[in-house]
From TrEMBL:
Pfam families: Aa_trans. Residues 15-24 have a biased composition (Acidic residues). It is found in: Membrane. Keywords: Membrane, Transmembrane, Transmembrane helix. Residues 1-26 are annotated as: Disordered. This is Aa_trans domain-containing protein. Its main location: membrane. GO terms for molecular function: L-amino acid transmembrane transporter activity.
Length: 442
């Protein structure tokens, strides 16, 4: 979408102040051919955050302690919700001020900077390109293809006479992925997200069966974290809520976008549900296995039992069905940048080709470097805090500058503390990822 950026001074000359904006509601001026329902959006938002990583929450609670872990999980969920509100609410204000129907993540940064001081305005294009180019990297899809291939490899090879390489299973997983990744409307991806979410809940139920097979114990269970374990907990728990890349793609395609924020709102309800679910399975798993808890609780289950194998298979299928929604994000950005150069009669063929080439690239990288997840994790450790924390703070701060921060500039102080927390996650996450890469070759 091509939008002319108007400076703050020009807007003032045009008379687009708060009084003259009241009659323009961006939500009512959106033209969406196939809008998504509120429930469909909720399904996407929940699936975007909740993956098989939920089975790692007992390990996170072990590092956070029973008391601090539960309280921290809810506080981190609130923090993530707040960041989403900062982004979407500021985007709405900018749309209302400039009288345009919608903005993407990158465009919100660009427009916010354009409304700032002359020294800030050149940063808009830089921030916009950082967001777009990072989101065009199909990080989740690459990790997912490797996960599906590795899981099928472990399950099938262990229970048959086959000795196939993991790359063969990645190629096999790519066959159904071709069809899934060709779904172009976010509305039609809802069934895939719903199936994936259902399968993950089935995994949770099976996991709870194993957890409650024997009595839980409070003996030798930490209530609070040590300094060293705190880092692991904060990183794992915060990014268990993170689905920043999906914020604008799903909210901009809603039939009733006003339901996305607000009270209760999709964002708030989703993160409350996730916090309750994460805390419950995290505490139960930690009480059951104590310090013996593994990075994924499924590793604590008897691997020779068929039910434990079912969890692995369900996880692989759930992840495969999740590829569509995460694949939508980079393709939407690429198409937004190139569609004006493609004749309308070739739009369908071009979209099909772009999606197929993207998938071929993902599968090729996954087959060429089966350990790509470790390296991609490093990229995520660097950029996720920037996208999920810093950019929402930057957008809010620039838009409110210089005098809209409330009593004693409490909003500016709050944003500064959040930025420091983001810096902490960036530094500790990067160190952890580098250590993982070093361990990979030792």
């Amino acid at each position: 979408m091509s939008i002319n950026v108007t400076s703050k001074d020009t807007l003032a000359e045009l008379g687009t102040d708060d009084d003259t904006q009241d009659d323009y509601d961006p939500y009512k001026h959106r033209t969406i051919s196939k809008p998504n329902s509120t429930f469909g959006t909720f399904v996407h938002v929940m699936k975007g955050a909740m993956g098989v990583g939920i089975l790692s929450m007992p390990f996170a609670i072990r590092n956070g302690g029973l008391v601090f872990g539960v309280i921290g999980t809810f506080l981190l969920g609130m923090l993530y919700s707040h960041c989403v509100h900062l982004l979407v609410d500021t985007a709405y204000k900018i749309c209302k001020r400039e009288r345009i129907p919608m903005l993407s993540f990158a465009e919100t940064l660009d427009h916010a900077c354009a409304l700032g001081s002359p020294r800030i305005r050149p940063l808009g294009k830089i921030f916009k390109n950082i967001v777009d180019y990072f989101l065009m990297i199909p990080i989740s899809s690459m990790i997912y293809m490797v996960f599906v291939g590795s899981t099928l490899h472990d399950v099938i090879n262990a229970r048959t006479d086959l000795d196939w390489d993991v790359r063969i299973y990645i190629l096999l997983a790519a066959v159904p992925a071709i069809g899934i990744t060709q779904v172009r409307e976010i509305k039609y991806l809802v069934p895939f997200s719903a199936i994936a979410t259902t399968l993950i809940f089935a995994n949770v139920v099976i996991s709870l069966y194993y957890i409650f097979k024997e009595p839980l114990s409070f003996d030798d269970r930490d209530l609070f974290p040590s300094f060293n374990s705190l880092t692991t907990f904060l990183g794992a728990a915060y990014f268990a809520f993170d689905a920043t890349s999906l914020i604008f793609p799903v909210s901009n395609q809603m039939k009733h976008p006003e339901h996305y924020l607000g009270c209760p709102g999709i964002v708030n309800v989703n993160n409350i549900c996730l916090a309750i679910l994460y805390s419950f399975i995290g505490v139960a798993g930690y009480l059951r296995y104590g310090d013996k808890i593994q990075g994924s609780i499924t590793l604590n289950f008897p691997q020779e039992e068929d039910l434990a194998m079912v969890i692995q298979v369900l996880s692989a299928v759930a992840i495969l069905f999740s590829i569509g929604i995460f694949f939508y994000v980079p393709i939407e950005i690429v198409w937004r940048r190139v569609h004006d150069r493609v004749p309308p009669k070739w739009h369908v063929a071009a979209q099909t080709g772009i999606r197929l080439l993207y998938l071929i690239g993902i599968v090729g990288i996954a087959c060429g470097v089966p350990d790509i997840g470790t390296f991609v994790g490093f990229i995520g450790a660097v950029f996720n805090p920037i996208l999920a924390l810093w950019f929402p703070i930057i957008v809010d701060t620039i838009y409110r500058w210089p005098g809209d921060f409330g009593w004693m500039k409490w909003r500016l102080v709050k944003n500064g503390l959040m930025a420091l927390f983001g810096l902490y996650l960036l530094i500790t996450g990067t160190i952890s990822s580098v250590e993982d890469i070093i361990d990979l070759y030792n």
